């Protein structure tokens, strides 16, 4: 069975937001990403960026969370602002399958040339994953969080 055939993104609703909020990364990753609760609040109240939060499911199991937004029509760019896999599902191939699905989803739903994301400079596993997919370090720092900005050319 290939994992990627069973990955899907699901809207966050009043029925599933608690499930998404309860998804957690490993303890040693807590400093590398905001909590899903904080991300959900940003999606509601940080209106400047038009964030869209989505649950990541595999075979109807909630395995992760992502959030994208700040779509720039002129530059044809978008930010993949959050991407996490729950600690119970890490190391099993879900991260790669989910990121692959998210990239395809963004390319199909937006007229894109570039996908941006930022990553903590000590998050070597995430950096390695992103580089595997063709993201590269732009050598710029995100002024909002002092993280490295990575870019993917569509």
Automatic annotation (TrEMBL):
Lineage top rank: taxon: Bacteria
One Pfam family recorded for the sequence: Acetyltransf_1
Single GO molecular function: acyltransferase activity, transferring groups other than amino-acyl groups
Domain N-acetyltransferase: 7-154
Protein name in UniProt: N-acetyltransferase domain-containing protein
């Amino acid at each position: 069975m290939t994992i990627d055939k069973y990955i899907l993104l699901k809207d966050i609703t009043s029925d599933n937001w608690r499930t998404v909020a309860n998804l957690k990364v490993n303890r040693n990753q807590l400093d590398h990403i905001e909590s899903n609760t904080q991300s959900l609040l940003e999606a509601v109240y940080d209106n400047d960026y038009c964030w869209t939060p989505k649950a990541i499911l595999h075979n109807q199991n909630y395995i992760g969370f992502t959030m994208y937004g700040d779509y720039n029509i002129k530059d044809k760019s978008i930010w993949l602002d959050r991407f996490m896999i729950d600690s119970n599902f890490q190391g099993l191939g879900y991260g790669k399958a989910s990121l692959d699905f998210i990239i395809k989803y963004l390319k199909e739903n937006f007229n894109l040339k570039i996908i941006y994301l930022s990553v903590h400079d000590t998050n070597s596993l995430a950096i390695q994953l992103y580089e595997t997919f063709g993201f590269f370090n732009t050598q710029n720092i995100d002024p909002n969080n002092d993280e490295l900005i990575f870019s993917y050319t569509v």
